[in-house]
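Sequence only, no structure available. Ideas?
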Amino acid sequence: MATSKIEKYLAVHGRRMVNLPAAPKPARLAGMPDFLSIGHRGAAGHAPENTLRAVRAGIELGAHAVEIDVQLVDGRLVVFHDATLGRTTGGRTTGGRGRLARTSFARLRELDAGGGERIPTLEEVCDAVDRRVLLQIELKGRRTAAPVAETIARRVRIGGWSYGDFLVSSFHRRELARLAGGPIPLGILFAKSPARFPRLASALGAASIHCRPEYATPALLARAHERGLKVYVFTVNDRRTIARLRNLGVDGVFTDYPERALFP
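Reply:
I predicted one. Tokens follow.
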């Protein structure tokens, strides 16, 4: 069987390139409800996405976890999804234009991310969450793994958090590889079929795989659960689809409306 690119990468660069203590994965995911309501970008159906208002809304609506996207700008971790500014900060009155990576942190903080909200930092989101729910951080860009890991480690060291209060995910395999073998639970995002997940999940020491609804089949769920992996599905807003996925055995969904994914 051919060696995967990630396995080759780990063989060359080592299993863990971020300096964190080696430790077993924390058990918080195992202690969560059988089916998680994960507020997508906070609670994007109720408030401007990836803002503090959206994060607080997700928690208030009963989400078990909130998901946000992080990128690195001027050495600071900002909570923002797109590579460009126009969709969320480009209105006539907000003036956001161009590429996020080419905009200074100071300028980003001046922009209106919707409804008077500002683009927050990861630290500000951590303060808002305050360990009340699981914080799921998606690494959107390159060079995000190390500063995210440092932020998490600092929260664990002096803020009373545990590594199990976080789940770090990404489509970027090499960013996840920088955290492989460490104490932070990892989730692998799949844009297409995750059928070949076992070797990748094993190489990264992942806690979960994340996929689209059409790929969440009974066979996939059985294979994942046999390996101790959670399966989370994105992004689902239809109540009937959410209920169907729950009945199928999915472990949770990302949704803009977290109240729709709550069950007795």
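The domain at 5-80+132-261 is CATH 3.20.20.190 (TIM Barrel).
Hope that gets you unstuck.
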